[in-house]
Amino acid sequence: KNDKVKARDIYQLILKKYQNIENISEVQDKLGKLNMAILFSKTITDKDALYEVEPGNTLISIAKKFGTTVDLIKTANSLKSDNIQVHAKLKISKTKYKILVDKSQSILTLLGDSDIVKVYRVSTGENNCTPVGTFKIMNKIIDPVWYTEKAIVPAESPENVLGSRWMGFNLAGYGIHGTISPEKIGQQATKGCVRMINAEVEELYTIIP
Predict the structure, then answer these.
(1) What contacts 84, CB < 8 A, 6 or more positions away?
(2) Which residues contact 48 (CB under 8 A, 6 or more apart)?
(3) What is the pLDDT of residues 176-199, one digit of tens each?
(4) Rounded CA gap, 110 and 15, in Å?
(5) Which of 14, 28, 83, 139 could lock onto 119 through a cystine, CB 3.0 to 4.6 A?
(6) Which three-class secondary structure state does DSSP give residue 140?
(7) Which residue blocks in 79-197 are alpha helix, DSSP H?
(8) Which residues are catalytically annotated?
(9) Which pTM does this prediction carry?
(10) End-to-end CA distance of the chain
(11) CA-to-CA distance for 46 and 139, rounded, in angstroms?
(12) Which residues lie closer than 8 Å to 106 by C-beta, 6 or more apart?
């Protein structure tokens, strides 16, 4: 009946109770699309706050207060600029996100407060070289420059393997990024980073602080 929140809750229940059903990936896909539709809209759920802008607030200060991103606040509230009015009411996500990368299945799972938000297909390192461990995202770059051993490859170059976004770990040289080779998604094909389709890494970049 076009109630996205109720539909989301039902799909989450299916995922928690019936892990062995044949079409589990279809359920994950539908849940992911619903979660994105809700997250990027003005729909307020139990995972959001309706925040009234106070004097002196900026989008950056509000994002830091709630542990979210300026991009997500702007997208969810259809804001065209960083300017906000005092007493305006904004939808702010309160969800705490984690990312789980499963090298054996070449998937990246976005978790919000321990619930599955969306599952993405990714590429990881050739010969299993993507490091195992728990890392933090320390920096985020739009249209990153690629620094190789031999050259500096500008963002606009068709040779720049990083694609449209970079999210760097607290392990130098490693991170999550886009791609110029979408046909290799799902394979062990990188030098150790986690590689995503550009449209999907841009989606993740909007959400993850």
Answers:
(1) 53, 57, 58, 59, 90
(2) 91, 92, 93, 94
(3) 999 999 999 999 999 999 999 999
(4) 14
(5) 28
(6) strand
(7) none
(8) 177, 193
(9) 0.92
(10) 33
(11) 29
(12) 121, 122, 123, 124, 185, 186, 187, 188
